[in-house]
Amino acid sequence: MQTSLNINLSLSFYQLVELARQLPKKKQAELASILLDEEPSKEQILQGLKEAIVEVNLAKQGKGKLKSAREFINEL
Predict the structure, then answer these.
(1) Less Cβ crowding at N or C end of the chain, within 10 Å?
(2) pTM for the whole structure
């Protein structure tokens, strides 16, 4: 089963800045990269995949918990 979600959100520049300030530093850097339309480096992509695989494996072993769709969206 495949599900998709499209969200249109209108934010002023000030609102976007305020939201960005609430993010952890790593997420701030990711947001800046997206806003500047920079492609992630190969290392960034591989690191993200490694982190995702570790999270999934821990969840399968009952040692971790995956985020709900709502938590994922709120993180964005």
Answers:
(1) N
(2) 0.44
